[in-house]
Amino acid sequence: MTFGQSGQTLLNSIAKTEDEKSIVIAVLGRKWELTFTTLVMFGGALFAAFPLLYAVSFGGAYFVWMTILFCFVIQAVSYEYRAKPNNFLGQKMYELFLYINGSLGVFLIGAALGTLFTGANFIKDDMNLSQWVTPTYGLEALLNPFNVMLGLTLLFLARTTASLYFLNSINHKEIIQRVKKQVLVNAVLFLLFFLTTALFLLLLSGVEYNGDVFSVVEYKFLKNLLALPILIVTLLIGVLLVLYALYISIVKNSDKGIWPFGIGVVITITTILSLLGFNQTAIYPSLADIGSSLTIENSAGSHYTLEVMSIVSLLVPFVLGYIFLAWRSMDKQKITEDEVLSDSHRY
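Now predict its structure.
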């Protein structure tokens, strides 16, 4: 979902004229509503399945999530008003908003996800009423090296994915030549941050629980990975698909790298997130009071809610199928300069 955002940070690097900028904006603008809707859908699913996790994180880490929300708001406004005549702030300002959304917004999402592994500064009582214990309300997560590394990993992952998507979607010789350089640069940075973050993760301690008793366990996520060999297999498959995609894109000059890359990314990230919760691992450790840590058991919805969600989840393949058909329809032909300039509703 995030490549649509971080693709905005490449605007001035791959587009040198106003017409070229219109092409890049058009490629991204036709997708942002789908990615935003998908993000909202996952947020709703999270709230339904784990309401306490949702309440503690979104209610406590207030500054982080409000900043992320602000980044998405200015994105929506920018797409609607950037190309409008006599717009209030001017085209350059809206392009700056798009850059902020694609950089700061994506980075903070990665840092926020990092707190699921490293923990956050909250406490909760027996009535599940929680409060944050620091006045920075989530911004202190940026002081943890792992969270920062994960944020940078997600940022350059999204930029790499966006570059591969541009190769597959744009029919413009000059833009494509510049995009190829961005694929190489961002892929190298992504791999460096990914390997560093993966090493950090395997060395991290985690919170383990047995009933209501919580304890810190060294190398918890490494132990989780070794305890479930299927995760090692899926991790290798995901990483190999990513490397294969970069190879055919950079060495073989293929424009189809987005497909194995996207599949590999989904498999790899799903594998990493699967280390949470498994093997009696807390899904949101508390740094202020280890006994307040959230687990699958104590933060999940009611039995009825989970039963309904399990039935609804059977519709996921149909939703994914719809998304696939919609994107395939939009990307059936590469976008051209003539197509963009003749569009009466240009972003």
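The chain has a mean pLDDT of 89.
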